[in-house]
Amino acid sequence: MKTQKLENLCQCYLADQLLPQVVTKVDADLSEKVRQGGCLHCSGKLHSARYRRKPRGRPKQDRERKEEIWRNSFCCDQDGCRKRHTPPSVRFLGRKVYWGFIVVLVAAMHHGVKPARLKILRETLGVDSRTVERWREWWLQAFAQSAFWKAARAQFSPPLDPEALPQALCEAFRVDRRDRLLKLLQFLSPITTGSIPLEGSM
Fold first, then answer.
1. Number of C-beta neighbours around residue 85 at 10 A
2. Which residues contact 171 (CB under 8 A, 6 or more apart)?
3. What CA–CA distance (Å, rounded) separates 167 from 3?
4. Residue 2: how many CA atoms within 13 Å on its side-chain side?
5. Domain-embedded: residue 126
6. For every one of its 202 residues, what pLDDT tens digit does the chain have, with 9 covering 90 and above?
7. Is residue 199 part of a domain?
8. Within a domain: 116
9. Which 3 state secondary structure label does DSSP give 198?
10. In what order do the strands lie in the sheet with 84-85?
C-alpha cells in the first residue's frame, strides 16, 4: 500500500462523519461487556470511573465544538479491592495522544514523509516528523516484541514481515474500507489496556 494512498485514507477517515460515531459505539459495547463481567479479582461489581482524554488529530469542526472526550473505565466497588478495569478501545491506542487510526495509518507511510506531505500532516493533524519517527520505532520495537503480537501473528498466512509494521497490517486488513479499518482497530484493541487479559483475533 503506497504512502500516497495511506495519506489519502487518513484524510478521508478524518472527514468521515460516521467514523467517530462508529468507534464510540464499539467502545461502548466493549465497555459494557467488561462491566457485566464484574471484577476480575473478586466478586465485586464495577462502577464507572471514566476519565477525560484530549486526543489530537480531531477534525476542525470537532475541535470547534469543544466536545469532551471520555475514556471508559471502571473500578471495583469492594473495599480492599477497588481494582481499576479499563476496557479495550478502538478509539485510543494506549496512552498515545492521537486517535488510534492516525497512529496506524501515518506510521504505515513506510517510505517516509516528504516535506510537502509533512506540511499537510502538520497543518491538519499537528503531527511533526519526530512524532512520526517515535510511532515507527514503537511499531518496530515495542509492538513487534509485545506478548500480544507474538501470540497474534500466528493468525496471518503468509506471516507478516515485522519490519513492515504497521503497513503489513493495513494491507492484511485492507483498510481502504471503513469496516476493514474497524476490524484492524478491534484486532489491536487488546493492547490498549493493561487491566484486561490479552486476546487477539481477526
1. 22
2. 1
3. 9
4. 3
5. yes
6. 666 677 677 777 877 878 888 999 999 999 999 999 999 999 899 999 999 888 776 555 455 556 778 899 999 999 999 999 999 999 998 878 888 888 898 888 765 566 676 677 666 777 777 888 888 899 999 999 999 999 999 999 999 999 999 999 999 999 989 999 999 999 999 999 987 766 544 4
7. no
8. yes
9. coil
10. 46-48, 74-76, 84-85
Residue that the C-alpha cell 464507572 belongs to: 48
Alpha helices in 38-160 (DSSP H): 60-65, 100-107, 115-125, 129-137, 147-152
Report d(CA 200, CA 202) in Å as an integer.
7
Q: Which amino acid is at 185?
A: L
198 within domain boundaries: no
Residue with grid cell 503468509, as numbered in its chain:
158
Domain interval for residue 91? 3-191
Q: Which residues contact 78 (CB under 8 A, 6 or more apart)?
A: 39, 42, 43, 44
**Paired residues of 70 in beta bridges:** 52
Number of domains, the chain:
1
C-alpha cell at 120: 499537510
CA distances from 134 to 43, 56, 75, 116 (A): 41, 16, 32, 20
